[in-house]
Amino acid sequence: MAVQTVAATFASLMLRLMFGGSHEPVPVTLPSGSNIQSLVLEFIITFYLMFVIMAVATDHRAIGQMAGLAVGGTIMLNALFAGPVSGASMNPARSIGPALVGSKYRSLWVYIFGPFAGAAAGARAYGLLRHTDKSLGDITKMLSGATN
């Protein structure tokens, strides 16, 4: 998490320097609706994203070649539907970096709490729905091709 936040901050700083100087507007993620609307949307879209990631990355029944398409398609749909209201951040680091560079912290809590809670709920929901008699360690060994 720390590396993502540092990278997002550095990228925001570089973009600011490349496109306008120290006091130009920074593209900070801000809700166009209310904070509660954006919080709920961030929770839902991050829930879906984490659910899809868990499905294609951890389940041995998923087709590996389609993982990128599934995750990318989910991000695209999330951005289409939630972007106009919440900005479709789906990642706290993606919102914290520009906020630090632009010194604009209004509604930042929405983009920290919503994705954290949505990702945790999505991973838990997939874990509850995925039925297998094998442990995660066994699945990981099977995916990597390792044998005992």
From TrEMBL:
> Which Pfam families does the record associate with it?
MIP
Question: Among its keywords, does the record have Transmembrane?
Answer: yes
Q: Does the keyword Zinc-finger apply?
A: no
Its family remark reads: Belongs to the MIP/aquaporin (TC 1.A.8) family.
Q: Which UniProt keywords apply?
A: Membrane, Repeat, Transmembrane, Transmembrane helix, Transport
Q: Which GO terms describe its cellular component?
A: membrane
Annotated source species: Eleusine coracana subsp. coracana
Q: Which InterPro entries match?
A: Aquaporin-like, Aquaporin_transptr, MIP
Q: What's the chief localization of this chain?
A: membrane
- Transmembrane stretches, start-end: 36-57, 69-88, 108-129
Q: Where in the cell is it found?
A: Membrane
GO molecular function list: channel activity
Q: Which domain of life is it from?
A: Eukaryota
Membrane topology, from the record: Multi-pass membrane protein
Q: What is this protein called?
A: Uncharacterized protein
